[in-house]
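Collaboration report, partner site 2.

Our partner group contributed sequences for two proteins of shared interest, and the home lab folded both. The records are reproduced in the order in which they were received, starting with the first partner submission.
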Amino acid sequence: MKHLSLLVPVVAGLLGFCLLAGNSQAADPLPVWPDLAPGETLRSRGDIQPYREADVPPITRVTNIRQPTFTVHLAAEPNGAGVLILPGGGFGKVVPDLEGTEAAAWLNGQGISAFVLNYRTKIDNADPGWERALQDAQRALSLLRSQAKRWGLQPDRIGLLGFSAGGQVAARLLTDGGKRNYERIDAIDDVSHRPDFALLVYPWKLYDASANALTEGMVVPADCPPAFIVHTDDDHSSSLGAVLFYAGLKKQGVPAELHVYGNGGHGYGLRDVKGSQISSWTGHAAHWLERHAQAPPTGQPQDR
């Protein structure tokens, strides 16, 4: 196991993630919090788990994250939009290449600058995990919006791309009503953390089978931002969560798009899956982003 310290190893490791995705524009990882994250006593940026022989191309898995960071991937020809990427990992780990830097490279190709978040992972099985991740994502969105000029972003065109567990966090951000899950720390927390749009790719555990409804506490509000959702019928994390979330969006009149593929499983990111058309989701998403992440023509309001 490789341990990430606070100094050179963490920089080298995270830069390595970026090289796996073919994106050389990422700078050193930046901290999400000015000091310790809420409730934390450690500053660990995580442990890289041993690579699995079956993973071709390789997949990086990082556990024991106590100090969240994000990497910046600026588009070569930016259109002013930005996306915070929330990788998956079941909250016990974060997968920063398959569901992070590879997605950042794709977004860069659409003229969208991307920011990959290594959020905190859960401490034990009794920890639901999403609470720390949600806090980190809320803070990161406020940070991006407060420093939009620094990265060439328009503050009203900053969205989310969440995979698996990160997709659940994205759904919680869409439905939290702008309520922050931690006490104010500084002026950055006075800046809105609500995304302007979101893409949820195989969002994990949105469905509560016992209630035949969205997971407890999740209600789609009337002012929910537009959302694009991808799932497969054979995903072990039921696609009913994606379907119910989409239904909630439609009931509220929120612009939304849902794609459920017959097969493809879970955890594919942007990669091809043999015998499935699932990798075509990026083409549909690119068209959707043209409508919801790019500035509308002068005098024509954006559909929201």
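Second partner submission, folded after the first:
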Amino acid sequence: MDNKSLIKKGFRGEKMNVIPREILKSHISHEFNKNLYLTDVGYFPQARNHYRKRPQGCSEYILIYCVEGYGTINIEKSKHQLTPHSFYIIKADTPHYYYADEKEPWSIYWVHFSGEFSSLFYKKFTELNNGSHITIPFESNRIAEFEYIIDLINMGISKEVFEYVCILLYKTIGSFLYYSLRSTTKADNSNDKMIEEIKAYLKNNITEKITISKIASEFNKSNSSIFSLFKQKTGYSIIHYFNLLKIQHACELINLSSMPMKEISYLLNFQDPLYFSRLFKKYMGVSPSEYRKN
């Protein structure tokens, strides 16, 4: 990454790997890696106040995948607003800046990539939608691929790890460029749509008390099938995911208001403020009062 305007602090729950340039230089000198490799990769959840400006551009191509919220990418004379499940690839050495929406900041996975084939991947991207951003069907495997690459790099950048990451990068970028081939059955499309509808239902009822039975009834499914499907597609149980949404909303209320913790607890339908405090600490690593202080 280069020519960037840094924010003062990172984002809670962020994941970011920047491969040291000396190690990178050593690894890309091998024939096996030179065609396509990554230099940086990460995940920024609810990246409030996220802003990057590169007047001279970046030496790598940048793929940004928005999974939640909204953000805008300005490049040359064009503007691209990313919405949930949309992506854009920024051309190397092209001046640009991008930022998260103030009200609903994006959550993004991103990767910087380069190599002799990188321009070909970018060319393929420009052919898909005349170089504009693209909205694609939700697929949990796409997120899992990013997470796996991040976990691999966390093991250490050995020769074998770097080679394997380079191979996986073909698949990861390919899942965006050839997204239309990924969901091949009506059942898959239908299930993905239902998961998105359940997420929207949970978000719209964030102040309510929700049970598996209530959701199953709402979507005309059995308790066991709705539980299994949601867990399979998202990696979370419905209640875990719902609690996560509640805690994220609690963070916003703590940041943007002076509302007492007890009131926030009751607003989100936690009738026991002590339980709310324990749950908040479980997810955020600090108590609600410590979070407000910091």
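Feedback sent to the partner group on the second submission included the following. The first helix runs from residue 21 to 27. Strands lie at 15-18, 37-44, 51-54, 61-68, 71-75, 78-82, 86-90, 96-100, 107-114, 134-135.
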